[in-house]
């Protein structure tokens, strides 16, 4: 008897599971139900289609050799019956069937399964405000959304748009629409963009984004303003009205769990389908994979929503194998590694942010390293990394990285380090691939480990920009010591009451420092490498309260004098 | 009493050790002896200066903010006495002094140390053949060499050059001189370039290099031909004469150990100074770091020469700390990670090649994965990875990677995975940073792990290009099955007697396959993804001897019909 496998959902996790099930069993009957018209959509590519990185929408739907993954492809190449425009409306656990409806013809049907895989993904959240149904308001969640926004680009008529929500998709949408020649305003309810980052890192993103678009934080949408059913503006909670012809809503996604919940399958606290390490749900014949699930965060042990395309594929692969072979393979969970591009910046995180590490009760040390990815003579570009490690074990807990430099490599290194349970000490002498076109002799990641090692040893006492700013605002009496060259000082400076004494003359000019050797001194330079050297020297000369401004001027997120 | 620290060698390991010693002890007397005129040379950048990536030679010698690291800098910023043009001629272990000579004035001196660090680096090997002293013959090992070759670029007179030696520096030199508009021939004595790679991977490099330069392997230089003391040609061992006005010799480096050996310090079997994990030599007051040492290969436990700039810095940092603090920090050794750029290709390795794994007695599994670094719609570029893992534990042993794709990220991932002792199973579900501008949803590294996992499970039975070629040459009776589309077949094909049956029609045309179900079938496509799917299917249909051509057509290093 041929095994009957049904997969619900035809984007990433579903097709992957179906394809893997087929490879595991050439003779199983595999059916894939997909509500929409398309299959195998590379959703993550929508912003790049909208932004004009390429023009052929089929590239989002096809194999690397250019064959569109339509039902014919699925049948011919994989002998999978892919039913598009077909919504599964009910799962009957008892008799192991699903009910479905052809959304075009309205025809209904029922089909039996031995094993079922739910891969229904997630849907975009919408704000519950007036006017949200107006023409000119969209999300960027489906192929249809992508087509709609791409058409706006091609027509070139829209002049002003508002993107609601400063998350990953919102950020990518701003880039895409900016590249379409549209004037953008991003509106975010929370005090920062990209909430997976810590505030200061997010602030650096915001500062950069402001060179391309208007950014409004701590302000939500109270109403979409319309005329003749068409959007004409967005009204904010503080009363401001932003005239625009287009608004894209990107305020996060929610797992599609109605089917599962109605069938009595267990839903978790995070709102996703609960699965074990085999991707098996509370029903032993039903598996789930992708954005519809909640999965284990490997570091905290807590369930999280991790709606990422790579994980959807990996989870689908595990589910696809297990429905055929029994529970043979496992999915270990996530460290919530994510990255996005914003014009010339890469931005991302792996593991825990400071906020998340605190929530999870970790006792941690952290550092910010601002330094280039490559030598100056190879046109090195700035990277800013915030690295967290467990105070006791030194185990890496998380890394945030952003800037015009090679961010994705840095994150890949840290993601692999976390996977390997590596410590700061391990990374201090990591043997990475070095050549000038690719990195510094001491790679940015290794330098970050060096600085954090120094901190853990008490050689480097850091102070964050935020703490300095707070203290300054509270009128604290600190001695701020800029140890750069005079030329650098003329070019740019913080202007927060600092004294300039270049590192090269500092030993000769120690007498100019505060007489009170216990006074708080904050040393810095462009990236705080020389700031660190100065601090080490001053400590040796008896100053007892010397700190280094972490990340230096390059990581300063506030206004500068110059 | 101030501690007296002497460092011999002023390029990478030496300055790093001196600088670290200073940070460890503000009051130590630190002296750096450097034979040449320059300090802190970024040797790894020489090829890019010669190749015209930048014009200012001082960029090779300066800090990120543009200050040349000359003796003034060392004194002002670090209170290190840097004696340039000063060769240390003798180490007297007993009375703990060094003797030195000013190479310009001939003046001699003696200086005491409490702790000594030897960082004398390595020197270029020269072939013992006639004419090697002719004008027009150079190495690319010193700043002077770089200046010499750069002048040749700027003058634009040299038309033809020969690079002797196909190692890392030879490869980079070919690129540099090619960019200078010179017609290049590379000559390599061994049967392959880049001997740290396995033959087939090196062959792919050779094929690519041949699009830019002439490449001659298995042929050494027998004589440099001169006229009036000037090079006019290179004569090879097979008698061929290559007319040229310039020859660059890059046949490897040898540790500078004369000083150490003469002082009775232990030299190892590999020809480098022997150090323990503290970078301490056989004399407890003498440490060594950088290219002059041999160090532990972490995977094999054997000593190796690893003349890499990143390691020189890391080793120097350890030595610099230990001479002050006692043996507090350790250097764990190397996995011999290296990378280089060759025009649009990145090329490198981390861990063991197949050759080295065999030598070390490992029982390993391996796979070749040829696939893009990013989606096609984001202009993804090809990567070819050869991955090795221990047969029993699945622990990653090594990865070679090359191609126009993002090689350095792949190597960084594998280097970190090796450091973390990760297995194939671990990497199968690695949570890496994914977004279309940076990678595929299933990153190339993760895909490599998937394929190797499949091999280990016996789902994927691979056969290497070399084995297929050998069998074909020996007249073996195999059924070669190309499962690509007809259009792809028309564009390019191996032409080794294969039959084309596209994957999408294979199930319908099973009757065209050999009747003998035990016959050897080798399935392939462009990268052997579809080849794998075909093989899985055929096995299910009873074919017992089905293999997949690893890496597919993209990894085929031999001639193709088309
Ligand atoms: C604009 C955008 C950019 C993104 N960028 C990235 C990125 O850079 N990196 C990253 O890792 N992730 C990114 N993501 C997230 C990634 O696309 C998702 O994680 C991934 O698509 C999830 O796959 P899935 O198969 O679980 O769910 P989905 O892609 O949501 O697919 C589920 C499918 O199931 C169908 N379905 C639902 N219910 C039913 C039903 N009852 N019957 C039949 N069919 C049903 C839906 O119509 C849908 O097509 C991005 C997403 C978007 C929208
Ligand atoms: C062209 C080129 C490209 C390279 N590319 C890369 C790359 O991409 N990646 C990579 O990792 N590595 C690369 N390397 C290797 C890297 O440059 C070396 O590993 C590194 O420079 C070693 O540093 P070191 O300080 O140990 O030795 P060296 O750089 O050799 O310096 C030793 C110094 O000691 C001096 N000295 C020797 N004896 C005495 C004495 N008796 N008295 C006083 N001074 C003395 C020498 O004059 C020399 O300046 C490259 C090297 C070259 C030449
Ligand atoms: C592609 C898709 C249909 C899955 O189908 P699939 O048949 O598993 O396709 P893949 O290309 O991923 O891999 C096929 C097999 O070839 C293997 N493979 C990949 N490259 C290979 C190579 N160079 N040589 C040999 N085998 C290879 C894979 O490991 C996989 O086998 P396994 O899962 O049994 O290990 C599904 O993931 C999909 O629709 N994706 C598009 C949408 C998407 O991912 N969206 C979210 C991100 S934008
Ligand atoms: C640069 C060189 C002089 C070493 O001197 P150094 O003072 O150790 O200089 P570095 O810039 O590496 O680092 C200085 C210190 O600042 C720290 N640091 C680096 N970036 C920092 C940042 N953003 N914030 C705070 N500290 C930082 C480092 O960790 C290091 O301290 P530590 O070793 O005590 O941990 C020596 O390596 C050299 O001459 N290099 C050039 C030649 C070379 O490397 N050639 C081979 C490759 S081409
Ligand atoms: Ca991820
Ligand atoms: Ca290395």
UniProtKB/TrEMBL annotation, chains A, B:
SUPFAM superfamilies reported in the protein's UniProt record: FAD/NAD(P)-binding domain, FAD/NAD-linked reductases, dimerisation (C-terminal) domain, Rhodanese/Cell cycle control phosphatase
Source species, domain of life: Bacteria
Gene3D superfamilies referenced in this protein's UniProt entry, alphabetically: FAD/NAD(P)-binding domain, Rhodanese-like domain
UniProt keyword annotation of Cell inner membrane present: no
Cofactor(s), names only, from the UniProt record: FAD
Domain (Rhodanese) ranges: 474-562
Nucleotidyltransferase recorded as keyword: no
PROSITE patterns per record: RHODANESE_3
Sequence similarity: Belongs to the class-III pyridine nucleotide-disulfide oxidoreductase family.
Protein name: NADPH-dependent 2,4-dienoyl-CoA reductase, sulfur reductase
Organism: Saccharicrinis carchari
């Amino acid at each position: 008897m041929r095994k009957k496998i049904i997969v619900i959902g035809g984007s990433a996790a579903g097709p992957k599971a179906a394809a893997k099930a087929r490879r595991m069993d050439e003779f199983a009957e595999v059916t894939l139900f997909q509500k929409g018209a398309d299959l195998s959509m590379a959703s993550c590519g929508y912003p790049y289609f909208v932004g004009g990185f390429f023009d052929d929408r089929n590239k989002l739907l096809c194999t690397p050799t250019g064959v569109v993954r339509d039902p014919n492809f699925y049948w011919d190449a994989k002998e999978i019956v892919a039913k598009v425009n077909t919504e599964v409306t009910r799962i009957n656990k008892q008799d192991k069937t699903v009910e479905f409806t052809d959304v075009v013809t309205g025809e209904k049907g029922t089909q039996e399964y031995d094993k079922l895989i739910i891969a229904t993904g997630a849907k975009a959240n919408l704000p519950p405000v007036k006017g949200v149904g107006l023409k000119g308001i969209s999300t960027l969640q489906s192929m249809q959304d992508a087509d709609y926004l791409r058409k706006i680009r091609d027509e070139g008529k829209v002049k002003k748009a508002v993107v609601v929500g400063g998350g990953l998709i919102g950020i990518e949408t701003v880039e895409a629409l900016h590249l379409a020649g549209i004037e953008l305003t991003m509106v975010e309810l929370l005090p920062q963009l990209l909430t997976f980052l810590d505030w200061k890192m997010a602030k650096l993103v915001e500062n950069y984004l402001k060179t391309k678009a208007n950014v409004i934080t701590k302000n939500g949408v109270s109403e979409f303003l319309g005329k003749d059913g068409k959007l004409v503006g967005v009204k904010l909670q503080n009363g401001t009205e932003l005239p625009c012809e287009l608004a894209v809503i990107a305020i996060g996604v929610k797992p599609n769990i109605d089917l599962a919940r109605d069938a009595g399958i267990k839903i978790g606290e995070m709102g996703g389908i609960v699965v074990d390490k085999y991707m098996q749900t509370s029903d032993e014949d039903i598996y789930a994979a992708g954005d519809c699930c909640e999965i284990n965060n490997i570091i905290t042990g807590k369930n999280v929503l991790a709606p990422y395309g790579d994980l959807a594929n990996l989870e689908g692969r595990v589910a696809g194998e297990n429905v055929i072979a029994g529970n043979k393979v496992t999915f270990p969970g996530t460290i919530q590694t994510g990255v996005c591009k914003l014009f010339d910046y890469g931005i991302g995180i792996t593991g825990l942010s400071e906020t998340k590490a605190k929530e999870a009760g970790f006792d941690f040390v952290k550092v910010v390293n601002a330094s280039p990815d490559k030598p100056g003579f190879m046109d090195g570009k700035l990277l800013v990394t915030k690295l967290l490690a467990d105070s006791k074990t030194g185990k890496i807990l998380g890394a945030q990285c952003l800037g015009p430099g090679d961010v994705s490599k840095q994150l890949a290194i840290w993601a692999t380090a976390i996977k390997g349970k590596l410590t700061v000490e391990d990374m201090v002498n990591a043997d990475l691939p070095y050549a000038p076109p690719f990195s510094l002799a001491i790679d940015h990641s290794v330098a970050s480990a060096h600085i954090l090692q120094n901190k853990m040893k008490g050689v480097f006492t850091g102070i964050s920009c935020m703490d300095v700013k707070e203290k300054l605002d509270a009128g604290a009496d600190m001695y701020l010591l800029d140890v750069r060259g005079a030329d650098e000082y003329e070019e740019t400076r913080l202007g927060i009451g600092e004294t300039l004494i270049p590192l090269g003359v500092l030993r000769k000019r120690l007498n100019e420092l505060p007489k009170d050797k216990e006074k708080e001194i904050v040393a810095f330079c462009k990236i705080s490498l020389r700031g660190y050297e100065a601090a080490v020297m001053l400590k040796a000369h008896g100053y007892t309260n010397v700190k280094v401004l972490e990340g230096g001027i390059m990581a300063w997120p506030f206004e500068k004098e110059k």
